[in-house]
Write a structure and sequence with these properties.
Blueprint: H1 2-6, E1 33-38, E2 45-50, H2 59-63, E3 69-71, E4 77-79, H3 89-93, E5 100-101, E6 110-111, H4 127-131, H5 142-147, E7 160-164, E8 176-177, E9 204-209, E10 224-229, E11 237-240, E12 243-246, E13 251-259, E14 266-274, E15 287-292, E16 298-304, E17 315-325, E18 328-331, E19 333-339, E20 355-357, E21 371-374, E22 382-384, E23 406-407, E24 414-417, E25 422-423, E26 430-431, E27 436-439, E28 445-447, E29 459-461, E30 467-469
Parallel strand pairs: 11-18, 12-19
Antiparallel strand pairs: 1-2, 3-4, 5-6, 7-8, 7-9, 9-10, 11-13, 13-16, 14-15, 14-17, 17-19, 20-21, 21-30, 22-29, 23-24, 24-27, 25-26, 27-28
Length: 470
Amino acid sequence: MACSEANDLPPDTQLSGGLTQSPADLNSRTKNIIKLYRSEDGTESSFVKRQCMHCIDPGCVAACPFGALHKSEHGIVAWDPGRCIGCRYCEVACPFGIPKFEWDRFNPRIVKCELCRHRLATDGQPACTRVCPTSAVIFGERAALFDKPRRISIRARGDVHLHAGSVIHGDVTTRDGAVTIPAGQTSVQLRIATTDDAVSETSESFTLTTGTVTGTVTNGSGTSGTATITDNDASPTLSINDVTVNEAAGTATFTVTRSGATGAAASVNFATSNGTATAGTDYASKTGTVSFAAGETTKTFTVDITNDAVFEGSETFNVTLSNATGATISDATGVGTIQDDGTGTGGTDDDTPTLSVSSPSVADGSKAVFTVSLSNASTQDVSFTPSLTNGTATLGTDTAASSTLEVSTDGGTNWVVGIVRRVNRVSGQEARVGIQTISRARGWPSYRPAWSMNSSIAVAMPSARLSQML
């Protein structure tokens, strides 16, 4: 029945004497059948499964002139309706009489078991093996199937019951039946397959109970035994990656990865926090929850990045995982790095400023004012050491002495001769070499310590300032 439902086959009554789903043999409406065979004296019986054998070297494939029958990558002998011409050579070539032709259809097909290949991507196995309660029919790699131990055949004579204890998630399949320990023997064995799922679980148990015993024993009311299933799945863990993006990327995408057992749902919260980058200026703060469905191993989310014209260098912010359910956290912090020097993924934004010097033209007796500018603002101080050299004009003759070169950091209101202050932005220490301040409003020096002037001076351009005047 499971085969017919999975392959959309109609009920077959034409060869069964009116018994639905019990045909006498394979036909164009039946791909799979369990046949009962009895010995001549009627004392022995056996069930035999009839379907395509999916031979290693199938005669039907060799006989098909257009390749409509072929071996798939899974070893399945599959039929391609787009290639079939209805020659039926496959019916003649198969030694087991498996392929059947649909004589009663206007557009006939070759009908045979294809191991439910349309289900393998989603269900992982054919319908017949999925529903078989005793695993009499199993599916898998050929070598792995040969490694499975042979099953013990037992006759049905007494009651056997399986009862789930702490077992969940369909770890075992229960069944009822009758078992007899033949005269002269002291034991029989019963076994049942457990499900190898992808769920991390504690040890689980289920019980086999004999029920009332027929025969002479001391405990005729029955007895029981308990089986314990130990888990083979690693505990699930969650981790988050580090991300480096260009400032022009617009977003930074973080990936949360689940390792270990993935058969159950899991979730974890996340939240951003400042590093050297500032929320609201360099990136948008964000909080949320990442949820994993059963079987999912990765989930992503994005954090918005702000693209400005200020050179800031590499800046970082953090994304922290917390409050995980269904898993533990192995790596709780992801670092987002924002680059604005042309590197990083997602863009080529380069805010690195360019230094330039103006070329003033002045009349004799006036002061030549050079403007040293940055192409755009920077959060870092930019220092340079100016010096004057002769051109067609001679320093000290056509100009004042080079030692009188003045600097203004406020647009020309105040002018300073020499190095005003040289501040280390990391330690905060400053080195005062010499200073002479002239106020245009008053015209007299406001501070003049003793110092020796050199022909060149060092000038620090504070962060966020675009120009200095010399």
